[in-house]
């Protein structure tokens, strides 16, 4: 994978994970029970197929995927909006200690920055080899990440929800616009995973 020059990657932990295929499972901070169940099944299958999960550890779908990976004793890549050397907030301290033990912390900033959130989204879109959107609102973080990843020609998939709602708008729009491949069952997921190229390692500072 190629990291654009204006984005510097700072890392702490097992940088060798960046040589493996990387996938992010992202979505709403308030997922439905259906979305939660699908996130757990998709995370389980992706891990079993040998993909390393990258997450920003935000609440909701993203955190569910992260917790599932850690429960399976699988190394995880955690994307931070703060420098990797900064003391983490209390609510993230325990999980970050677990991540750095066998996984990797990455950040796009060396010092605190007012544009850290935008840089983190840009870095995530460049680090992942593929992206799965579970849910989210239009113009929300998951939707914008999918657009950024698609612009870099990264494979994007989205969960095909049986019922429309505000939190499924991102997935539905990404599918209807052709940006994302719809995932309705396990066969769809396996077909999508088969199209993910092997990653190449970027340079870490």
Task: Tell me what you see in this structure.
By secondary structure, the protein is an alpha/beta fold. The protein has one domain (10-193): Rossmann fold (3-Layer(aba) Sandwich), CATH 3.40.50.450. The chain has seven helices and eight strands, in the order ββαβαβαβαβαβαβα. It has an eight-stranded mixed β-sheet, with helices on both faces. The longest helix has 16 residues, at 33-48.
Could you provide a short overview of the structure?
The chain has 205 residues and is an alpha/beta fold.
Assign a percent range to the helix content.
Answer: 25-40%
Terminus-to-terminus distance? 16 Å
Order of helices and strands: EEHEHEHEHEHEHEH
* CATH class value: Alpha Beta
Number of domains: 1
- The residue-averaged pLDDT reads 87
Mind telling me the C-alpha Rg?
16 Å
Count of alpha/pi helices? 7
CATH architecture: 3-Layer(aba) Sandwich
Q: Provide the CATH topology.
A: Rossmann fold
Fold topology:
Blueprint: E1 10-13, E2 22-26, H1 33-48, E3 52-55, H2 61-71, E4 76-80, H3 90-102, E5 104-107, H4 116-127, E6 130-133, H5 141-151, E7 156-159, H6 169-176, E8 181-183, H7 186-193
Parallel strand pairs: 2-3, 2-6, 3-4, 4-5, 6-7, 7-8
Antiparallel strand pairs: 1-5
Helix pairs in contact: 1-2, 4-5
Key descriptive features of the protein:
205 residues; 8-stranded mixed beta sheet; 39% helix; alpha/beta
């Amino acid at each position: 994978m190629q990291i654009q020059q204006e984005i510097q990657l700072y890392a702490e932990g097992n940088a060798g994970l960046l040589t493996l295929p990387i996938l992010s499972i992202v979505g709403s901070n308030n997922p439905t029970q259906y979305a939660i169940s699908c996130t757990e099944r998709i995370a389980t299958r992706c891990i079993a197929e040998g993909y390393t999960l990258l997450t920003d550890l935000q609440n909701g779908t993203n955190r569910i995927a992260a917790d599932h990976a850690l429960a399976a004793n699988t190394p995880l890549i955690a994307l931070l909006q703060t420098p990797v050397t900064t003391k983490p907030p209390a609510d993230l301290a325990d999980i970050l200690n677990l991540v750095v033990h066998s996984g990797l912390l990455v950040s796009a900033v060396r010092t605190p920055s007012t544009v850290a959130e935008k840089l983190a989204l840009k870095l995530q879109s460049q680090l992942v080899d593929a992206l799965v959107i579970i849910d989210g609102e239009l113009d929300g973080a998951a939707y914008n990440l999918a657009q950024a990843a698609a612009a870099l020609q990264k494979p994007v998939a989205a969960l095909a929800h049986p019922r429309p709602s505000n939190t499924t708008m991102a997935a539905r729009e990404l599918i209807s616009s052709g940006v994302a491949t719809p995932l309705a069952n396990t066969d769809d997921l396996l077909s999508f995973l088969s199209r993910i190229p092997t990653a190449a390692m970027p340079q870490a500072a």
